[in-house]
């Protein structure tokens, strides 16, 4: 199952939903699809969807998915990476009134540059990206949280000693 996650933002992302709906209708995507459509006006005809999911439902869909297609929400991207799910990130664009600016492009590029995801950009062949993502070896995200905490603790200990 392909899981489409559009987050909980107040903006629509009709463009992505319609593209996937058309590809499904044409038989170019054969796999089952489920979407969390958020505040989008477009309601898919060829796959199941809900406007919003609970945290438990979201986690379940992500675990069941063979592939994630998502807006450039950092939380969703990190969840997919941490669950070892291939992910295609489609940035929301201001020119389509999908967001207030184009910062999602920068987020997608940053994750793609580290080989954590593929980016879908307007005009790309989404079917090819889906097929490629299913066999691509993405890199694993390694958090540096423990290193940051250790450095802070070390700094605070040295600061305390100097007082």
From TrEMBL:
The keyword Transcription regulation does not apply. Keywords: Endoplasmic reticulum, Glycosyltransferase, Transferase. GO terms for molecular function: hexosyltransferase activity. InterPro entries: Alg13-like, Cps14G-like, Glyco_trans_28_C. GO terms for biological process: dolichol-linked oligosaccharide biosynthetic process. Its main location: endoplasmic reticulum. The keyword Transcription does not apply. It holds the Pfam family Glyco_tran_28_C. It comes from the Bacteria. It is found in: Endoplasmic reticulum. Residues 1-145 form the Glycosyl transferase family 28 C-terminal domain. Belongs to the glycosyltransferase 28 family. PANTHER family: GLYCOSYL TRANSFERASE-RELATED, N-ACETYLGLUCOSAMINYLDIPHOSPHODOLICHOL N-ACETYLGLUCOSAMINYLTRANSFERASE. This is UDP-N-acetylglucosamine transferase subunit ALG13.
């Amino acid at each position: 199952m392909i899981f489409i996650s559009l987050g909980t933002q107040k903006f629509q992302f009709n463009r992505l939903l319609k593209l996937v709906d058309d590809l499904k209708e044409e038989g170019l995507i054969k796999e089952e699809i489920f979407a969390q459509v958020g505040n989008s006006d477009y309601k898919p005809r060829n796959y199941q969807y809900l406007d919003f999911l609970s945290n438990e439902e979201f986690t379940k869909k992500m675990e069941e998915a063979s592939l994630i297609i998502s807006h450039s929400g950092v939380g969703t991207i990190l969840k997919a990476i941490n669950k070892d799910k291939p992910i295609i990130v489609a940035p929301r664009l201001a020119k389509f009134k999908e967001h207030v600016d184009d910062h999602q492009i920068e987020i997608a590029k940053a994750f793609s540059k580290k080989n954590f995801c593929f980016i879908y950009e307007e005009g790309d062949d989404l079917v090819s990206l889906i097929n490629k993502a299913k066999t691509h070896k993405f890199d694993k995200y390694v958090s540096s949280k423990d290193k940051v905490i250790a450095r802070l603790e070390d700094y605070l200990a040295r600061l305390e000693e100097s007082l």
